[in-house]
Amino acid sequence: MTLLKIPFKIIALPIALAVTVVQWFGIFLTSFAGAIFYIFSGLCFLIAVLGYLMGICTGTESVRTLVIGFVAFVLPFVAGWAIAVVAALKESLWDFIKS
């Protein structure tokens, strides 16, 4: 049985290395984009609240801006979930290779 696994382990090794590189690249992009999206969502929040309080925009426009800010705030968490899926795939590949 072990003899049959060796070719699959040899095939899985470059795939595991590629998935590792994809995970690292995703972590870098998510961290960088997360900082930008957090700043953008904070600005959307401030613009919506201050615009409504000063009477510059109506309540529906403020809610729309708050929704845009919330979506921008949630996007890095969605990307983090996708990176966690890639990390789980990587770990399962490495477990297969080590077995």
How many strand elements? Answer: 0
How many helices in DSSP terms?
Answer: 2
Mean pLDDT: 92
So what's the overall shape? rod-shaped
Termini distance? Answer: 12 Å
Order of helices and strands: HH
Low-confidence stretches: none
Strand content: under 5%
Nearest-angstrom radius of gyration? Answer: 22 Å
Protein structure class:
mainly alpha
Helix coverage percent of residues? over 70%
Write the layout of secondary structure elements.
Elements: H1 2-53, H2 59-98
Keywords:
mainly alpha; 0% strand; rod-shaped
Description of the molecule:
The protein is mostly helical and 99 residues long. Helix content is 93%, strand content 0%. Helix 1 runs antiparallel to helix 2 (59-98). The chain is rod-shaped, with a radius of gyration of 22 Å. The model has no long low-confidence stretch (mean pLDDT 92).
